[in-house]
Structures are given as C-alpha cells and as structure tokens.
Amino acid sequence: MDSKQVIEMDNKYVMNTYARLPVVFVKGAGVSLWDADGKEYIDFVGGLGVAAVGHANPAVAEAVSAQAKTLVHVSNLFYTEQPARLAKKLVDLSFPGQVFFANSGAEANEAAIKMARRFANDNGRAGIILTATRSFHGRTLATLAATGQPDKQVPFAPMPQGFVHVPFNDVDSLTRAAQAGACAVMLEVVQGEGGVHVASPDYVKAARELCDKHNMLLVIDEVQTGLGRTGKMFACQHFDVTPDIMTIAKALGGGLPIGAAIAGEQACGLLRAGDHGSTFGGSLLTASAGLAALDFIVGNNLCQNAEDMGAYLRERLLEIRDATDRISDIRGLGLMQAAELKEPLAASVVDKCLAAGVVINRTSATTLRFLPPLIVTTEHIDRLAVVLKNVLEEL
Ligand SMILES: Cc1ncc(COP(=O)(O)O)c(C=O)c1O
After folding, report:
1. Does the 3-56+302-374 domain belong in CATH 3.90.1150.10?
2. Distance from C-alpha of 90 to C-alpha of 99, rounded to nearest angstrom
3. Burial class (CB in 10 A: 0-12, 13-18, 19+), 105
4. Residues 6 or more apart in contact with residue 208 via CB below 8 angstroms
5. How far is the CA of 130 from the centre of ligand 1 (A)?
6. What percent of the chain has pLDDT over 90?
7. Which residues contact 237 (CB under 8 A, 6 or more apart)?
C-alpha cells in the first residue's frame, strides 16, 4: 500500500481520536525514521518519550525476538522470571519497595490511585487526592479526573470523585489543601503534556514535608520524566525527594507497552491478592523488553547523555530565540525541552519541520516540545536547529 492508501484506510476504519500528521512511517533506526516513500526524518518526538533507547534498538529487538520464540504469556496466575528480575532492577534503581506491572502510564497511575484510596480507607480517612492544575495523568476516567485540565474532562462528566486540583508550584495552596484533609498528593515534577513546566525545588520539598506531616502518600508520576529523560534516572532525584509511590511507563519497554507503579515500604502492602490485576501486566515479553531497555539506558550512561545533550539543545534553542524574535521562553530539564512561541503558530511550525525532515511536537497552539531519543547527538541537534531556525524565519 502507498501512503495515500494507508491514510485513506486509517481515516475510514480507525477511530479518529488523534489529529494525525499526514505521514506513514515504516522504518526506524536510532534517532531516524523513514516514511513509506523512503524519506528520512530525525525524530525529536521519540514516540512521545517512548523511544529513549532509539528506534528498533538491536538489544531490545534481540530480547523480544528471543522471548517471543520461547514463551510470550502465561498470565499472572503463575510465576515467571523476567518480571521478577525487572521489578528487582527498578527497586534497585529507585527505592526499597515492590512493583505492580501495568500496560501503560494511565494504568500505572490507576494502581497508584487505588493504593492511595486503600491507604485512606484503612485509616478511616477522606480519600481525597491532591493533584496540580495543568497536570496530566492519563485518559482513563480516574486518571482523567486526576488530570488538572478541565477542558479534557468536561465532555466526559461526571468525573470520578475525590480529586482536588491545586495550583502548580504554589506551596501555600498545597499547604491549605493538605490541612483540609487528603490521603495523597500526586505530582509530575516536570509537567509534560501541560507544556513542560518544571516544579520549583521548594514546591517538591514542601509536598514531601506535607505528606510526612499529614500522613499522606506522595505519588510522583514519572511516566514521561522517568528512566533518564531529564538527566537523572528519575526526575525526583533532581529534588532529593523520595516518593511513596512512583509511576513509570513510556521508555520502560523500549517501545513495548509496559507501565509500573513502584511502591515504597509504606505503600507496598496496600494492594493484596485479589485487589488489583491486569491480564497482560508484566508479561514475559514486555518484561524482557524492559530488562533490555533498562540495561541499555544504564550500560550506555544515557542519563549523562540526556543531561549533556539537554544542555546543548537548550543552548541551540536559546540561540534561535535570540536570532528570530519568535520565541518568548525556553524551558525544561534534560532532554525534555519546550519552546514557547510568541504567537499561536505551533501547528504550522510542526508541519513545516516535518516537511523538512524533522519531527517535533506541540502541546498547545504556542508550545513546541522536544523529546528526542536519549541517544541523540550534537549532529542531530544541529540539524534540528538549522531547520527550526529557517522555519521560524520564514513564517
Ligand atoms: C505524566 C504522564 N502520566 C501519564 C500519562 C499517560 O500514559 P499512557 O498514555 O501510557 O496511558 C502520560 C502520557 O503522556 C504522562 O505524560
């Protein structure tokens, strides 16, 4: 099938829940993608933060292929080695505790929300979970209710109850909400879908202290920030804060769907046999992919590369800001960066960059977002910079 036929068939038979760009990708390697016509692109979206180890990573491909030929799935009625090994690795990299495996970020957050509710009910307390305005925690009903973006919730009202949204980075508001009574605070320390907003150290520290003081669980959603993206294995490590529950997904499976909620010692006994589950959660196949992806991230020191290349990307974006007068702000942490445009032209910038062979993303009409694979090099960033500058100059 050629691109036109694929697009026509997709538009006719796949539910139109995504505003897709008119390109059909057929191949990837590292930071590059190729479309059905053989045109090469460099990818600064990275499958929305999934392709941390690069597209078609050989180590992940090898692990998945070997596992697929051995045993793919037996259900969680039985013990299997790979998820146990992956859970140990995650605990070793984060904090002492236990892991619940899901298939996505939203599902990992659902598990965290259920732990928080069980924590409240066990202690005879209000099951209120405090989350931040402009946050994003997923599209299932509970995670949508947790998400601090009313425009995404209104069409699906009524929302599940028990979520209170508190202004992001506002310590006083969080303090007042905690005093009013809650069982958990759920936070992204860098808000991703909300437009790449980094929390202030005071705010993250206050969240931890308030949780300790009022006996609440601190849930950090690292679905987008986790596994090296921000220059540390987990973004909360920039703030020297350890959560009670941390959720991850995206980069974890090297492209395969797997999510995890890591619960520290206070939280890991909250979900007991029969309380929660997932048919596919932590299958041999996705866990094998996860083991290979994690080994690749650690073995190739991708946290360091994310820090170094994040700094270089930021430098190049600042140069473009100064040269074009089109950008009002550059913000982010590591390889999670955004450029705020002075005018609502982000859609047109994304289209024009795509036509020039550079894949970028926008989170709003004014915000461009960059989430390249963590193996990105200065050469890739230079190529992005040339294209982006030209596009902004020609707008
Ligand atoms: C911080 C955060 N949490 C949760 C999610 C939901 O993850 P998923 O799309 O895998 O359900 C996302 C997705 O972008 C996210 O960025």
Report:
1. yes
2. 8
3. buried
4. 218, 241, 242, 243
5. 18
6. 99
7. none
pLDDT digits over 8-31, tens only? Answer: 999 999 999 999 999 999 999 999
Distance CA 32, CA 43 (A): 6
- State pLDDT tens for residues 229-242: 999 999 999 999 99
Please report, for the chain, the start and end positions of each structural domain, with discontinuous segments joined by +.
Answer: 3-56+302-374, 59-299
pLDDT of residue 337: 98
Residue carrying structure tokens 């974890």: 252
Give tens-digit pLDDT for 268-287. Answer: 999 999 999 999 999 999 99
CA-closest residue to ligand 1 atom 8? 105
**Closest ligand 1 atom to 224 CA:** 16
Look at residues 339, 378, 384, 376 and name the one whose alpha carbon lies nearest to residue 359.
Answer: 384
193 CB under 6 A from ligand 1? yes
Q: Is the CB of residue 229 below 6 angstroms from any atom belonging to ligand 1?
A: no
Interval between CA 105 and ligand 1 midpoint (Å): 5
pTM above 0.85, yes or no: yes
As a whole number of angstroms, the distance between CA 114 and CA 137 comes to: 14
CATH architecture assignment, domain 59-299:
3-Layer(aba) Sandwich (3.40)
> DSSP code of 374?
T
What CA–CA distances, in Å, run from 44 to 33, 211, 287, 370? 10, 36, 26, 5
- Cβ contacts of residue 38 below 8 Å, gap of 6+? none
Can you read off the two tokens belonging to residue 17? 């829940």
